[in-house]
Protein 1
Amino acid sequence: MATQSKQAPLFIDHEMCTECRMCYVVCREIDLNAVVIAPEAQHLYEIDERCIYPGCTVCLMYCPAPGSIVETSTGRSLVPPPADVHTDELKWPRKAPKS
Amino acid sequence: MTTIAKPGAELAASLVEQSRMEALHTPMDTLLDGALAGKVTEDGLFRVLGRLWTLKRMMYYIYGGWAMGINVNEYPATVDYLFSKQLYDDSTHEMQYVDEILRRKMVRTQSRAFAHDYCKFSETSRVAYYIFSLRALANYSQNIRIAAMNLGAKVIELGWLERLGASYPDPHVRAILAGQVAETRSHVLMGKLIVERFVTSDVDATLASNSCVSTRKNYLFALEEFSNFALGIPMPEDSEEPELPEGIE
Amino acid sequence: MLEPILQDFLDKWVYPTGFSGPGAEFRLKETERFIPVWNNVVIGALHKANEQLNSENEDWKRNGALGGYSGEGPHMSIKQMSTQLLSVSIPQQAKYIDLQRMRARQVWDEVKHGSLHADILLRGGWIKKETELLDDPRAANQGDPAYFGLTAMVPHIHPLSRAGQNYLEEAVACLRLISVLSVMEDPLVRHENDSQLLEEMMHFIEGKYQIDAYALTPEDQEPIKAVFDYLLRPWGRSAAHAKEAEHAKK
Ligand code: SF4
Ligand code: SF4
Ligand SMILES: [Fe+2]
Ligand SMILES: [Fe+2]
């Protein structure tokens, strides 16, 4: 039951990925929940169709392993992030909580 | 108190055997029967996923507390390697349970899951009873803790994971549980290795054996709450503590 | 002029930011203070690696591995790194569980790094089995107890304090590894450094992420800044790293 489908706009290249879970943590933090743990025993991290890339690029700034997150449509590596994915408009706004 | 004069190898084998007997039918199997009979609703499933998640995410505190009690050069590095992997695996399992809660849209966000009654950590729950009992194992040395956890509760967990992972009717839940079998089995095997090699004195053997019996009981006690909660069976508030065999307090 | 290794590191891993807002602003402002330190780390590491390349014997390999084992060996790491699992109270877990998740990963990584150093000692023929290290004080000696103690104390200060150590110091670890790898061809040393690099990168990025995503108020930034200040004191860890470059220049 692989959750990783080429339907999602991004996929993880497990030849490059260290399964460090940063993308999971980031995507969970912004409540998009598009990174999941595959149920199979290796428990690889995978991106499912909840991913809204290119509307969101947040996890790409926190993935440490070059080449591990890939743009599905072109096969282009997005780690480290190329300039077009970290523009100011794409940044996820964080405000200080009201006290 | 009786002294069990056994070398580690014999002790490990006997603890696994005892735990296997207790693992033959657990409250999670009652849940499985209920699910196969179509008696576990989506809400019931949320209840059990919520409880499993709560228990697993409390393990950070348990393992953190145990790790504070392993000193440099107290054991060969094997003990650290195996323990750190177990910590990581249980963290993965914690994440999988909340993943499934979110994927099924039982709640919309992780922070709402935390606030939900089914997932909240409550001091008056049996999850708490079990977790508190594990925290107390920090008082012992690592060989005893691992005997209790890995040859007690983990053997029982492995038993129900194997069965629910094979026949739980919902395919997603079944896949998640089946996927945890290999790691849980490795925890049992590493438990055997540690008990075989590092339980070397009679006093440690007795303490390991006693702790294993009580940990197992306490785990089953918590599981009973999970299954009843999911099946909508009320828990009697005045239920007794789990019974321990003679000679163990 | 910055060292090219540092410039590349900054462009690829430091400056890209997933979040906007006070956390990322705070991080980038603080980073200005670290750039000279990080630059010196690269200079010092390159110098040391070149010295080692020209050395008459292979003692440095053994000593490096023994030092690595004592610093991030399995015994050290299991206890050191696990302190962070306890930095989040149960009521705070909804907000900070990711700290525990990232730390669970780091515990496992650092314990593995210990086994890499042991591997060097085994492959280099300096030991026959890892348990021999139990009898070697060099494999357990904590040269910098205040630094290790800081790791253990920060959970009692603020759940985010450790992010300061992860950001500043794990970047140092990455820059050293990258510098060494840029000059070393010895397969044993490459193995020791290369197989750690991406995990050290994760530890650094873990700090970066925590600051960007969580350090949004002065109350949450202050304890991180305090750790930075500490590490930059003349007797702090980062200042000590930077001194290596001074030696290199002489
Ligand atoms: S790009 Fe955004 S939505 Fe897609 S996986 Fe990364 S963080 Fe999640
Ligand atoms: S952040 Fe990158 S390396 Fe880490 S699990 Fe995700 S894709 Fe893999
Ligand atoms: Fe390391
Ligand atoms: Fe590290």
Protein 2
Amino acid sequence: MKWFRQWAQKSPWILHYNAGSCNGCDIEILAALGPDYDLERFGVLNRGNPKQSDIFLVTGPVTYRSRERLVELYTQIPEPKVVVAMGACTATGGVFRGMYNVEDGIDTYIPVDVYIPGCAPSPQLLIDGMAKALEIWVQKSRDIEKPHRLFGGIRKTLHYLDRRTMAQTLAQSKEKEPQ
Amino acid sequence: MLLANLRWGKNVEKMRPIIAGVFTKSISIFVIKECYTVSMQTLLFFLILSPWIMAVGYLVVPNRGVLYGALALLGAGGLALFDTTTSWQLSINETIVYLIAFLDALLLGYFVWVGYRVRHWGVVALAAVQIVMFVLIEVLLGHGEGALLLLREASQWMLLIINGVGALIVAFAVVYIEAEAVDAVQKRRFVAYLLAFMGVMNLLVLANEVMLFFLLFELTTLASFVLIGFRDEEEARANALRALWMNQLGGVAILGAVLVAYAQGASRYIDGWVAGEASLLVVALMMVAALIKGATMPFDRWLLGAMVAPTPVSAMLHSATMVKIAPFMVLLFAPAFSHTALGGMMLLMLGFSMAFASYRGLQEATLKGVLGYSTIALLALMMLLALIDTPQSRTMALVLMLFHAMGKALLFLIAGVIERTLHAKRLDAMQGLFSAMPWVMLGAVGALMSLTLPPFGAFWAKYSAIVALAGRIDGAAYMVLVLASVIIASALLVLLYFKLLSLFFATQNPTQRITLSWGYSVPLMFLAAGALMASVLYLAWGAYAYVAWGLLALLVVLLLLVAWLRLGFDRATVYGCGERTSVTWSQNFYSFGVDIERSFTWLFGAMFVAFLVMATLLGVSL
Amino acid sequence: MMVWIVLLAPLWGGFILGAERKIRAHMQHRMGPPLLQPFYDMAKLMQKRTTIIHSGHALLALGYFVTLWIAVGVVLLDGNVLWAIFIHLLASVLLVTAGFSVPSIFSHVGANRELLAIVSYEPILLLLGVAWYVSSGSWESGAIALGGTYWTSMPLLGVALLMVVLLKTGKSPFDMAHAHQEIVGGVEVEYSGIFYEVLYMARFLEYIFIYAFVFLWGGVVAVALFFVLANLIDNATARLTPAQTVRWFYALGLPLALLNLLGLVA
Ligand code: SF4
């Protein structure tokens, strides 16, 4: 299990979402993916699909139009997931702070794990932030992991396969609960 | 090494009694015993006569229970006959010949009257031509000695298809027609027509005397005319007339063949013609009739027009009966010309026709239209297999006929169900059907798969067509073209069938569940189970039995799992870029453009003319 | 030996995919991910929580994977090549059905494109099988391999096969079916966790399947050459639209295959 987790942390797939940024940060992300910094050597892939991503990389100060999408995308990423706020805008609103159409920073909507400062942050900083995000990701995946028992595995598999069993167990456990 | 142990087609013959046995038992043990103990002749007469009796009986006493019982008997009869391997024939006698001539005359007179009534001079002219030829034949041609009826191997398969599948279609039609906006007498008549049609077909596949064959050929034409025009609408009438005159052309071709055969000193018996009495011209003329009946490409219009009829009619015409005459005729005549230049030309026509029909289907917007074009394509494949004329390809043509009959009948009946429950004909209106009737749609998916993919029977036909053509490819460069068109057509058919699914499943707001009445669902279940069971039985003796069994087991397990299991994972909404918008889907259509299509139409016309010219040259030189 | 290749097919496929990512990175002057990256990805996907749209959708992906494995087995274990192609077709159709079974736009577009891809490559593969039959007299892949390589007798079919390789492995210019950032991976879009992992491994199998054909055509040299060529072309070209892709296959690939077959027959 140990080396398995070591393997698992070598493959952070990112979902990049532009919540109204000036595109400066996005260009830096592309630069980081390019030959000079080569983010892919850490196994990073830009998936563009929340369902297969681990790291939610957001740029921009969250405009009114993008709020719902931001939350929707966040909920569609399966756990464990890490949110990285890239750039000053994303952290505080940055140069757009206080504008009529802008929510200052994404942490008013979703919990953020890593803030990368700068307007725009350099690719080195981005890589740094990614490393930090990975640490948090590993921690989170350890947290959600349950201990497996030898024969419990069978029951667990049954649970996975059959929703009815699941519902029954749920009902039973509810009965046991003191009202 | 591992997989090459079992060779293809080793024991193809073995499956027939097994299919017959299991099917029959599944219907009723009592019925088997009855059928096995009666003599073959009784059984044949039962098959020939009982549809007529049932038709008349249903007109007089429209009792549904009795009809169902009789249909079950009829289907069992077809199956029981399939089991027997001995041959049978009925010799000709004087009275029957005069009776046939009398009925022929009556029928041609009726055609003239029909044409005159609607002022369609084409029909009248064709009927007049036929009458002239008919009189000539009756004056000139002696009767000779020969078999009036002949039970061939192909006839046994045809009887199985006609009675097995046809009975289920009629059982469906009885319920279907209830909801039609016509009076009670018309409804009874509709069922009676279908039954009579089965009677005609049962006799046709046994006919050996050519004027009897002509009579029955024209009777199917008549029956299709009546059934297509059943809904008394402008379009239905026009399409019925088109079907009439196009099929009359086939009748003219048959009479022409008889005259040419007379001129060249041949008899009037089909088995004699095939044995070498007749010249290539005669055979070619018979093939013209087959091409028209089989709606091969220049003649596709009538079959698509037939879609205006009530759906059981489409099912009856396109899956179980009428169009199957075409591959049946090719099966009869293939030994006489398979390896000539004429046969090569016809192979080319059939290959191109298959490819073009499956391409044309991509532009159809109605479910029945798509099914119609795919029927044309698969008919061309059946004729092609029959024409290749190796023992194996002949068997495969018959297997394809059986599987196509079951799969297509199932699809047409499902189209009928959709029409009745949701009042939808166009594909666009069929969104989210899966949530409305999951089992029916699973049946549709299964039917689509059974028509194209391994390990089902229709796939074997496609496969062995490629193998057989590859076997004849050496030194015959045009075979490459035939082969390429079959291959392209099979790819296009996959596209055609599976793009249908796009709308069936897709919906954002699940629709109300629809429960079907037994009258609808039982025939569907029988057809689906039949297709599956025939596949299983067929597989047991096919090549690569392990792989095939594995695949089938996988498919069945998968389908059952899909239908039953609710996986315990959490459900998520679909990804829409973070947006939550409602979407309406539409069908994809594919086309190369009108110009190319038009040039293809010309190509088919030119090929047909070339076929006729070749036949004339070869026939005269004999 | 072949049995092991088949039984461990996803493993070998993973190595091929890893090597490919490495090579592509080097072509772009990057270092690229480690060779074992596909396995890291798989380990990661196993740690993720799995969500599904509905069970049919998830199970069809499993069906696709298993059927594809059978197809790989048939072509590698001396089976009939036509059979292999058709079982592969069955696998693809299961995937298409899965794609259509969810109310997702990207999934539908992807499934439609997958069907167009089938229409494009299948005739060429089948014609290749026929050409093998004509020159070696057998449909079994063992006998075809015994007949030597086919560089000289089927050069044009080789070109057509290269096009198929590009399409099947999702390379530009024929990568319309899986276009990331355009339709977000097409039919794959709604899968996550272990079911996405199944699809990810199925991709390895696709590699093995199509490169088995390349191997039959021209031995190990051809596999290496096609591998490099495919990545070069992938890096050097832009994606074509579905219509353009079909047109390329029917205007170039198919005529090439037919010409070659005519040459063999005449
Ligand atoms: S942080 Fe700076 S570069 Fe990034 S989006 Fe905001 S304004 Fe643009």
Protein 3
Amino acid sequence: MQFPTFQQLIQHIIYGITVGGIYALVAMGFTIIYNATDVINFAQGGFVMLGAMIMVSLNTTLNLPMPLAFFLSILIVTAIGIIFERAAINPVKNASVITLIIITVGASIFFSGIALPIWGQDPIYAKPFSSGDPVSFLGAKISLQQLWVLGITAVIVVAVQLFYKYTIIGKAMRATAINRTAARLMGINVRLMVLCSFALSAAVGAGAGMAIAPVAHASYDMGSMLGLKGFCAAVLGGLGNGVGAVVGGFTIGIIERLAIGFAPLGYSGYKDAVAFIILLVILFLKPSGLFGTSQK
Amino acid sequence: MIRIQSLSTFYGNIQALRGVSLHVDDGEIVTLLGANGAGKTSLLNTICGLVNSRSGTVNFGEKDITNTSPEKIVKLGISQVPEGRQLFSELSVKENLIMGAYQHYRKRKKEVYNHLEQIFHIFPILKERQEQQAGTLSGGEQQMLAIGRALMSRPKLLLLDEPSMGLAPKIVSEIFKIITDLREQQKTTILLVEQNAHVALKVADRGYILETGRIVLQGSSEELLENKEIKRAYLGRGYKEVWE
Ligand SMILES: Nc1ncnc2c1ncn2[C@@H]1O[C@H](COP(=O)(O)OP(=O)(O)OP(=O)(O)O)[C@@H](O)[C@H]1O
Ligand SMILES: [Mg+2]
């Protein structure tokens, strides 16, 4: 057993919060689509990966400035989300939820299958969003990219909340999630709401991938693990609960990082197991998740 | 206003409507009475496009609207207050009302907010509670919200599915007063589905009796109130002796 110093502890927590923010965004992506369709979108990790890879390509290969690459990548991945829904989800009439979930698993394989020949097997280098020395906090160091991750997470979380609260489409999406039949009686096109949820979810996923790319390895298969962790976070928070997804994301990020910090030498390779252990524990103790009220 | 001819609707193999014909003229209040499972909700949902009919036609004005999608039905001016209110329980009262005007909102926002004030005028309690979650309202308030929400789309024809369900008599008469006011003041045409024949026939001009998917009786409210079969089946125990 290693006993980290206070400073190391803070350092771990900061790392945990950083990666937790990404899990939170991925979990939000799951939540958005789940609320609209009851479907767990296993292609969510694909959106994350595509966001990162497309941004890096636009930035390094096409030499576009980073902010432009960032926004273009969001737009492209959003378009991919829309095409995915129109091509693979919408045409399947009267599909059961399980059929749709299997389609998303297929799509996830498809996305990494396309990414592999384009970007190759090795991680590609993503430039940090800004250069400069890390800042100190309680003796620990925070890199500027970590601050970017936190900032982007915060902006996306707030933007999605504002969208749901103040736009008519956002309200209609919430209404549809609450009572689909009533939404139809109001003249809301619920299939359009499903499309919107895929678009929004893709955009959020892309944001997560782009923010984390300079910190983690950006590669064709980065989506699968991030997707699974985000899924664990969404379940931990209570599937379908937006606040829960965010809290779940940070919780898993921090616990995972602390577990690495406290793990006996040689055992930190088990870090990826942490999220799944948390998932099993929560399913065992409170299947509806931290913020869930009832099982759907 | 609306004319339904020989409408038949199935759920899989279960036939819910067996050739139903009825009509509602402009400005009328017509009630559709029937016991549990008679097919009342099925009829309203077939009109609204939530379920498709297998045969028969629905005409709205001059237009054939058989098996039209719910979005288009709302656009044409038919609005339903569904059974059990079906509110968006976690949305605020105001948001529920705005959802009722979903199709007008983007193009005619100002009109929608004017209309919201009119709804608040009809239901002052909703104005007081506008920021509250719909699910926390009392039963009567929820029914008012469901009606207000349906009115937000400015329907020509309002379909009400058992608005008296689960409410105290005092609240029921309040709601039925509003229904008659709607006809007087807004010229809204109303098809009122009820099990409570007593109150329904009091406000309606005409009525139909639906039994296991068929219209078995129709007539003016006075005729139906005097009908012995109706008294026995729908007007309760007190009338039993009259029948016997
Ligand atoms: N979604 C459905 N699937 C299968 N059968 C249904 C469905 N909805 C209604 N039914 C059946 O159709 C028949 C008519 O039901 P409907 O709900 O229209 O009756 P109702 O007159 O509205 O009754 P209530 O007064 O209880 O609301 C019933 O036998 C019911 O079991
Ligand atoms: Mg019914």
